[in-house]
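Q: For a teaching session next week I want to show students how multiple molecules come together into a single three-dimensional assembly. I've collected the sequence lines for a complex. Could you give me the predicted C-alpha cells for the whole thing so I can convert them for display?
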Amino acid sequence: MTTARILALWLTPVVWLAVPTLVVEGGPDGVWAGLLFVVAPFLVLCTRGARAVPGGRDTLFPVVVLLFVVGLMLWANLALAADAASWLGLPRWQGIAAAAGGAWLLVLWRGAGRLLPWLLGTAFVAALLPLAVLARDAHIGPLGAWVRLASQPAFRFPAESPWVTEGREVRPARGPSALLFEEEHRVIAVTPATLHVRARDGARVSDTDWELQAGQSVMVRPGDELTWTPGARLRFEAGKAVPGAPRSGIAWADGRRGDGWRRWGLLVTVIAGALGLLGFGIPGRLSRRQMALCGGCLVATFAWGLGWSIYCALGAPDIFLGGVSIERLMRPPPLASSAASGDRVLPALLPMAGLLSFLASTVALRERLGALDVTGGGEIGHDLGLWSAILGAAALASLWPADPWLLTLWALGLAGSALGPALLWPPRENRPAVGMVAGLVGLAVFGALTAAGHWAGLGAGLGIGSGDGWPSLVLAFPVVAAAPAAALVLWLARRAGPS
Amino acid sequence: MRPAVRPARSALLLLLLAGFPIIAALPSDAGMIRVAGVSVLWWYGAFVAPALAWLVAVVLHR
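A: Of course. Below is the structure for the complete assembly, covering every listed component.
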C-alpha cells in the first residue's frame, strides 16, 4: 500500500505522459527528464529517515505549502484532462468534469485509499495494451524501432496521415503558432481560411495574406512561416517534411545543443520537489521488498514512456506538426485512425489510464496532507468543504489552456523551495520557527523569480524557454536560487546558536 | 554501518545522474557513438542508469 501511495503521489498523469512527450520533442532531453523522475524518489527514500511529523503548530507551514502544491498539481492534471478532451474533439469542460467529478466522488468515500493498487494496476495495463498494438503494427522491437527512427533522413507526412487525406485543424502546441517550412510545400484549405505567409528573402521580409476558399491552395517555399485563422482545416502534401519536426532522425537522437544548463535546472527542480513532496509525512518505512517494487514500477513506467514515444514518432511523423504536446500522445494519429475505422476500445485505453491514474493521485495527495495532520487525526484529507473548494478552483482555472508540465514544475519548485532545505538540514528542536522562516524566504525568492521568468518568457514549459544559457537558469528554474536562499537562512540560524 | 551506507547510496545515485549530462557534453560527440545501433547517451540514460539506480537503491537498502 505504501508503494502504491508513493507511486500515485509521484507519478501523476502529467508526469508519466510528459516523459514520452519530451522524448518525442527533444530526444535526449526527454530521456533526462524520465531518468530524473525515476531516480529522484530513490534519492529521497534513501535519505529519508524515520523523521517524525512534529504535529501541532509546527506542521502548519508544511500543510499550507503542500495545499498550494497539491492545488497546482490538480490544476496541471485537470488542464491536461481539458486539453485531452479538446484534442479528442470534445469541449474542454467535459474532460474537466469527468476528472474532477471522479476525484470529488472519491473524497466522499473514506476507504478510497484501498483502491490505489487497483487503480494504478488497471491504469498500467490500460497504457500497456496500446503500446503492444503499436509495436505489433510496427513489426519491429523497441531497439530496432529506435534505430529506424534515429536513422530517418527526414520526418515526412505519410500518405495515410489525416492531414494528407481529409485535412484537419492544425492546433499548435504551446509556443510559437507559426509553421516553419523546410521545403517547398503546397498547403490546401479544406474549409475557407485566411493564411498569412511571412517570406524571407535574405534580409528582406514580406508578409502576404491569402483568402482561400475550400479546395484552394497556396505554395510556400523553404524558410516561409505560415499562420492561419483558428479553426481552419488544412491539408498537406504526402512525402513532404513535417513543419516543426527535427531535420532528421539523427538530429532528433542527438538532441538540441547548448541546453546543458536546462538539464541542471531540471535536476535541481525534480530532486528538490521530490524532497518536499515525499520527504516526510508518509507513515512507515519502506522495506527492501517495497523499495524493489516501487523502483521496479518507476523503471517500468519510464520504459513504457520510451517505448510509447518511439513507436508514436515512428508510426506517425505528423505528430510533430506544429510542435508536440502531452495530449497529442494520448491519442496519436495511428490510434485516431483505428478510432475512425470503428475501434472505440483501443483509442480510449490511454485516456482511461490517465483518468484512473489521476484518481489515484488525488487520493494519494489527500492522504499525503492527512498524514501531516497529526493532531486532527488526518481529517484534513477528508474535509469535503476544503477539497470541494480546491477541486472547484482547479477545475475553473483549467477551463483556460495552461501548460500542465510548467504547472507541475511550479508545484515541484514550490515544494522544493519552501520545504526541501528544512528537511535536509532540520533546525534545532527548540527553534522550529527557523524552519518556517527559511521556508518563507525560499517561497518568496521562488515566487519573485517565477513571476520574473514568466514575464520574461523564460519558463521551463514545453516548447518555450529559449533563454541564453546559464543566466536564464534562475528564471527558468527558480528553485536553483530559492532553495539555497532558504538553506542560507538555516545555516545562519545554526551559526547564531541557541538563543 | 547505517550512517555510512546512506551517504554512499545518495552519492552513488547522484553520480549516476551526473553521468548523463557528462556523457552528453563529451568532446567530439562521443556520447553519440552508436553501440548496437543505439547511441551511448541513450544506452546510458534509458537503460544503464535506471537499472543501476534500482540496484543501488535495493541492494544498499537498510
